[in-house]
Amino acid sequence: MEKAYKASFFQGLSKFLITRPGTIILVSIILLCSCTKGTRLARDKNKKTGSVVRSIHLDAGWHKIAYQGYNSACRETGYECDLSLCDSSVRKTKLKEVPKGGRVIIYFSSTTLQESTPGNFDYVVKDASGNVITSHSGDTSSVPSYIEKAWYDTDEFEITQPVTYPFKIFLINKLDSSRSEFLVKSGN
User: Fold this and answer.
1) What are the CA-CA distances from residue 65 to residues 15, 138, 181, 184 (Å)?
2) Number of Cβ within a 10 Å radius of residue 52
3) 61 φ/ψ sector (left φ>0, alpha ψ -120 to 50, else beta)
4) Smallest Cα–Cα separation from 65: which of 29, 104, 35?
């Protein structure tokens, strides 16, 4: 009986989505949130940005990163300008502000407050040769949220100079010197 109910629910949902296309985003987010519970957080391909990020070594907690390359950031900025009906001079200014190396977003998730607080982490970006491209400290003013037995938070930083692929991003926990390592294979 339960399978039949689920099937009829999703059939009704698909008919609803076909007739009301503006609801697709909200439903996709809800389904994505419900489907990702209990799955591995570090994925290879980010469908939104087109970047490929692979976790190599996870010591500093259960964290995920997303990388948005320069081209993807320019497209998103242009789209935001279109939505807000910016004139051409504002659009040009905003596009000049897009970081040449892209953006990195870190998603923190942990059962302890300390491991999910961005201020307890440093971020280091290195090229394929091991040279440091940039480094940042986590946001010390950010306070994680407690949801369903875990602490969650996000942080973001920009890479101001152009990068070549592949490159690595390290999350270093300042409290116990553990680190997580991510390999960015490509970006859009």
Assistant:
1) 35, 14, 10, 10
2) 18
3) left
4) 104
- Summarised one tens digit per residue, pLDDT across range 140-171 is 999 999 999 899 999 999 999 999 999 999 99
Dihedral (Cα; 24, 27, 28, 33), 10-degree rounding: 170
Q: How many CB atoms lie within 10 A of CB 57?
A: 13
Query: In the chain, what are the domain boundaries?
Result: 1-33, 43-186
Taking domain 43-186, whether its CATH number is 2.60.40 is answered by: yes
The pLDDT tens digits for 49-58 are 556 777 776 6
Residue 55 has what pLDDT? 75
**Ranges of the chain whose pLDDT falls below 70:** 1-51, 57-61
Burial 69-107 (b: 16+ CB within 10 A, else e): bbebbebebeeebeeeebeeeebeebeeebbebbbbebb
Question: Do 155 and 139 meet the contact criterion of CB atoms below 8 Å apart?
Answer: yes
